[in-house]
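Record type: ASSEMBLY
Status: queued
Input:
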Amino acid sequence: MSDLAAPLPSLADRARSVAAEGTIVGVHFLRQVPVFVLGEEALLFAAAEGKKLVAIHGGGILTSAADGLRIVTGGDDGKLVATNRDGEHEVLATDDKKRWIDQVALGPDGAVAWAAGKVARVLAKGGRTGKGEQRDLEVPSTVAGLAFFPKGFRLAIAHYNGATLWFPNAAAKPDVLEWKGSHLGVTVSPDGKFLITTMQEQTLHGWRIVDAKHMRMSGYSARVRSLSWTHDGKALATSGSEQLILWPFEGKDGPMGKQPRMLAPSPSRCSAVACHPRQPVAAAGFADGSVVLVRLDDGALILAREADGDPVSALGWSAEGQVLAMGTEGGKGSVLTL
Amino acid sequence: MTAAPSTEKIPVTVLTGYLGAGKTTLLNRILSEPHGKKYAVIVNEFGEIGIDNELVVNADEEVFEMNNGCICCTVRGDLVRIIDGLMRRKGKFDAIIVETTGLADPAPVAQTFFMDENVGAKTRLDAVVTVADAKWLKDRLKDAPEAKNQIAFADVILLNKTDLVTPGELAEVEARIRAINPYAKLHRTERSNIALNEVLGRNAFDLDRILDIEPEFLTADGGHDHHHDHDHGHDHGHDHNHHGGLKHYHDEDMQSISLNTAKPLDADKFFPWVQDLVATEGKDILRSKGILSFKDDPERFVFQGVHMILDGDHQRKWKEGEERTSRIVFIGRHLPEEKIRKGFESCIA
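Status: finished
Output:
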């Protein structure tokens, strides 16, 4: 174990700061440029040579997802907007009742899914007409989470009392995985074998998809709001506790009957996690503003951001993993090149 | 005025009331008066609000059970999401108003503020304000359990449309409200006309503001005209008060129980008792409140609760010469009064 009293080796002073106007709610990379998603109206492009604010919504930005080429955002203006690396943006959809678009997910083949109220919608890239075809599915209660499966054109939709698995291109009735309670977020393991939801309670719920076998992952001190799969897909890193929690997903049983690993113990609660895309390293951000890089093999820590009392609300790695971008509720962005 | 830390949280006012009672009129009034404040409004239906407000959010009133084995621990799932979304625009509004549908139970709304950590960290429940129709409430109390819930749960009641009833009918409906909830602030209004500081900024759920829990109507109580009314078609709406005080009614299923003692309580007995009480009877206890004097404790302890959720803390030192009376109040449905009374008495040190 590392000695908590000894100061951690730190890279924090090597980070470049990026001041944002207002809360940072997400961060993504478009090629090499870190782009902060602000709580209201705009994306902040934070290239080393200068920053650029691009207004894309007429109100709050509620959700975002990115695939390296574009960032897709949903807003309380009822709009779904795609923005490319040049800051060019187009409205992909407008909700007919101007309801909030508060869920968005991007699929492996350029498909985009979003939700407003109880309706999940999918727009496939291309399609026969080249313009893409939109498909809708209404679920029994408000859509609270969306995630595409890593392979195939299949969408997982989290809602009250379970999750719905939908093949938008198939006529077949969607499968439903049931578990009582309010499911607020969803992710599918990179091997496509497990589906995990975050719940209103301080717990995760999981299903092995092949037989719908349940797994409960509990012990958190807060609702889990941030999830990230490790580079090899063999573990799921989560926020919601006074350390980084890693659930093992090796083998056919996933975390069933196993204990999670607990790394990076902190006096503060973990509020955001992002695993390195290539290496066994995770970034963990905390409510006190600190960010640590955690070597997953042995738990060794390097400080990437000093604690300043401003909760970490967004973490993201560049595609190759050389750059880590960090954002806080108070609008302080920073970019660390390793 | 001193700004307590809790006032930094965004206050949330919950507006309830049966269909047609005048909620939307009150909401429009709140939004249109020149108070210089901006409100984010969470409504069930668009279009009813006559005021242009960019921060109007449509809600679906999704009541979700918590997975903790307690069937009355429900939250409003839509509020959890909406407040999370609204807080991204912090600074664009000063307060939030949640308008519920006429058929809504206020409890899940209130419980959301205690059960969801994120909601509780960023906002605070200010008060439950219920608008009641002076002409029709009496009938609704008979046939609509929702209407009774809304009265029982309220911190502030607007007895509205008073211009449409006789003084006798008004006294009658007031007495019926008091039979259910003697503790709420009651205002008589026409067309929901009321000074906004009577409905907003009430701090009704703030432990620091629990000063006194005397029933509101005691001051008007001059007689002992205890009608045990069974609502079987008798009309008791005569325009006379037999002994100069308000008429008393006993509501068949919703009551309040008030208990007090001048003897100090034993904290080691009281807490297990009250926790067990809300665990077993919490489904039927809508609201609870208490000011407590414990043996060998120089400080006043206060608590308040919604169904099974209790929130309590030491409030301040008992003052020199202050009467150290412990008083607790429960408002609920079919409450086992004898059991509660005996239980409370067994907590005396």
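Annotation: The two ends of chain B are 38 Å apart (CA to CA).
Annotation: The CA atoms of residues 211 and 291 of chain B lie 8 Å apart.
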